[in-house]
Structure formats: structure tokens, C-alpha cells
């Protein structure tokens, strides 16, 4: 049914470009569309503008074979996939403007029988808004199959997970759900599960909120254990020996552009009824402030004891272990808060060679020389370092050595 289909993908970032390259390598004719001419030109040269393992080879071969070309304006196609950003405005209000703009931009080229898929992580009701925008722009939506299919890939493993993960497809009507699910079955080896659009939207937000709530529980425990003079790592290890308990690990907070963002889409719409989800967001953000306060109190203690300013090594700046991504990073926030307090801070991020505004230090030198060593991210490089200063371990990196 889809063998000769032409696919247009709007938004050529971390989700859209890997999807475009994968589908082109599967033999589909793919047009990638982006509003950035830099992105379009880079891809048309067979090159990539983002870092993701294996993506360069996929894009090169897709462009060389003529199956993938990029452009600034959508062309007539059989299937349209929207993979544009869904950030939030100030005050944690979801911003679906990119989705609505992308939907408007295809209205002139959508034809009866076409498929329109929203892949962007979206507040509940957004797929229906896409349908409405198309209808208001003159498209007969009774003839178009519209669905949501949220993406749940893990950066660093995108090319594999695009194929292997189970997918949820939520149709604006049941027929759209089935048609779109059959399209995903042409390249996904995981199971493709069909539901309605609102449930599919909520499922994606629920997955990330589930992670956030469970991390918040661990983070709250870590704060309480500090107060009660209990080792939280030992506590969790012991409690997890219960056959039905599985507590996650605490950390410096929660960062990145998914788990720290998507729960707010539920809170914004759910208001007073989204209590635990809001509380989890607040607890995880508070954990970052608490870490900063804890370090500042250690600095004060050092100054009183030794009558001089200590150097503090901030071990890790990324938002999670073993990556170079600093977006919404709680570790970066702690570092910046300490700098703002005029603390002598040594920034360490072994996954980055350089940073445009932060002077980075070698992790061995910094841990060796600093008066206070604070572990903010459990990067693998930190697992067997020697330190002579006071150690504050907020991510369990020293515990894992046991
Ligand atoms: N990156 C991830 O790991 C990940 C995982 C799951 C879900 N998501 C979701 O996928 C969606 C896309 O995220 P991303 O990480 O790929 O974003 P991104 O910022 O990497 O890329 C989005 C691209 O869309 C382009 N764009 C913006 N408006 C456009 C328009 N009207 N027409 C065409 N192109 C347009 C931008 O120029 C950009 O290149 C978001 O909703 C995100 O939450 C991302």
C-alpha cells in the first residue's frame, strides 16, 4: 500500500532528520523540509548539523541515492510528518506555534487520500488542532488520514530505536489510526499499538511524567536522608531488596528537553488536578537549588576552618551521564549559581572538548587539586578518581565503586 509513497517530513532536527534518512534508506522518496536554509543546505550536501551516532552514514547514503532531498517549502506528497519543536513559553505554558505553522504550511499541498502525522510531543488536543487548521485552510479533512505518533527514542541510540521501539498511533478517527499504524509497520520491528489521538498524546506525556515523579521520590529521599544523617544510596539499595520496590537513583535534579519539559503540558491543562505531577516538577527543580545551598554551606565551613577561599571542582555539567548535552542541565545551573556567588569554581565536563563561555578543566587535575569536589553527574570517567579535598557526591558516582 505504501511502497511508492512519497513522504514529506517537516522539521529536520533530532527526530525529523533521522526519520527522513531511515525512510529514504528503506526506499521511500523523502522530501525533508526545514525553515533553516543552513539545515537544508547541509543535508543536501549529504552532511549533518546535529550529533547522533550513525546518522551521518544514513544521510550520506540517502542523499547520494537520490531518495532524500531537503527544501524550504513542502511539496505534494502522500504522507506528511510534522516533527517540529514543542517548547514552552514563560510560565510553563506549552508553545504549539511551530506545530500550527507547520500544519498551515502543508495546507496547499495536502490532497484527498493523504496521511498527516504529528510526531512532536504535544499537549492533549493538538492533533485535533492540526486537523482544524487544515480544515480552515480549505482541506477536506474527511478525505485525509490524520494521526499522532509520539516519538520515544533515546538520543545516542536513535537510529536503532526508531526501528526497534514499540510505537503508539492515535488516529483522529479509527480509520486514520489503522492506516497510519500500517505505515509504521513498514519500517518498525517493535509493536505498533493503535488508539485515539488524545490518548496517544497523553501516553507520551505520561511516560515522561512517570520518570519525573519517580526521580522526584528519590530526590526527596536524598534530601530527607541528609537531614536524618542516613546514607541515601545504602537506604535505596536496601529498600530495593523488597520484591516490589524499585526506587530510582537521586541526582542533581532533572534536565534535558523532555522529562523536565513535558510534564508541564499536563500541569498546564490539568490545573489543580495535576498535583503529583506538578509536585514532582517542583521537587526536582528544588533539588538543584538544594544542591547549590549544600555546596555554599560547605564553602562557608571551609572558609571558617581554614581562613581562605576554597576551590570547588564541579564534576560534570551535562544533564545526564556520558553525554555532552547541556540543555536544561541542573549541573550547569549549580555551576552558574556558584560562579554568581564568586566561588572559585573549576568546571569539568569530560564529554566536551571546549565551551564557548566556560573554561573547562581536566577532570583528573581538578579532582586532584580542588579543596571541595562536588560530583554533579555520574560520568564514567569519575568512577575511580583520587581526591584530597572534601567530596560531596550528589549523583552516587563514588558509591558505585563499592
Ligand atoms: N530530541 C529528542 O530526543 C526527542 C525525543 C522524543 C520526542 N521529541 C520531540 O520531537 C519534536 C522535535 O524535537 P527535535 O529534538 O527534533 O527538535 P529540533 O529542535 O532538533 O528540530 C526541530 C527542527 O524543526 C525546524 N522547524 C521549526 N519550525 C518549522 C516549520 N514550521 N517547518 C519546518 N521546520 C521547522 C527547526 O528549524 C529545527 O531544525 C519535539 O516535540 C520534541 O519534544 C524529541
UniProtKB/TrEMBL annotation:
<comment type="similarity">
    <text>Belongs to the UDP-glucose/GDP-mannose dehydrogenase family.</text>
</comment>
<dbReference type="InterPro" id="IPR036220">
    <property type="entry name" value="UDP-Glc/GDP-Man_DH_C_sf"/>
</dbReference>
<dbReference type="Pfam" id="PF03721">
    <property type="entry name" value="UDPG_MGDP_dh_N"/>
</dbReference>
<dbReference type="GO" id="GO:0016628">
    <property type="term" value="F:oxidoreductase activity, acting on the CH-CH group of donors, NAD or NADP as acceptor"/>
</dbReference>
<dbReference type="GO" id="GO:0000271">
    <property type="term" value="P:polysaccharide biosynthetic process"/>
</dbReference>
<feature type="domain" description="UDP-glucose/GDP-mannose dehydrogenase C-terminal">
    <location>
        <begin position="313"/>
        <end position="400"/>
    </location>
</feature>
<keyword id="KW-0520">NAD</keyword>
<dbReference type="InterPro" id="IPR001732">
    <property type="entry name" value="UDP-Glc/GDP-Man_DH_N"/>
</dbReference>
<dbReference type="InterPro" id="IPR008927">
    <property type="entry name" value="6-PGluconate_DH-like_C_sf"/>
</dbReference>
<dbReference type="Pfam" id="PF00984">
    <property type="entry name" value="UDPG_MGDP_dh"/>
</dbReference>
<dbReference type="InterPro" id="IPR028359">
    <property type="entry name" value="UDP_ManNAc/GlcNAc_DH"/>
</dbReference>
<dbReference type="InterPro" id="IPR017476">
    <property type="entry name" value="UDP-Glc/GDP-Man"/>
</dbReference>
<dbReference type="GO" id="GO:0016616">
    <property type="term" value="F:oxidoreductase activity, acting on the CH-OH group of donors, NAD or NADP as acceptor"/>
</dbReference>
<keyword id="KW-0732">Signal</keyword>
<dbReference type="InterPro" id="IPR036291">
    <property type="entry name" value="NAD(P)-bd_dom_sf"/>
</dbReference>
<feature type="signal peptide">
    <location>
        <begin position="1"/>
        <end position="23"/>
    </location>
</feature>
<protein>
    <submittedName>
        <fullName>UDP-N-acetyl-D-mannosaminuronic acid dehydrogenase</fullName>
    </submittedName>
</protein>
<dbReference type="InterPro" id="IPR014027">
    <property type="entry name" value="UDP-Glc/GDP-Man_DH_C"/>
</dbReference>
<dbReference type="InterPro" id="IPR014026">
    <property type="entry name" value="UDP-Glc/GDP-Man_DH_dimer"/>
</dbReference>
<dbReference type="GO" id="GO:0051287">
    <property type="term" value="F:NAD binding"/>
</dbReference>
<dbReference type="Pfam" id="PF03720">
    <property type="entry name" value="UDPG_MGDP_dh_C"/>
</dbReference>
<keyword id="KW-0560">Oxidoreductase</keyword>
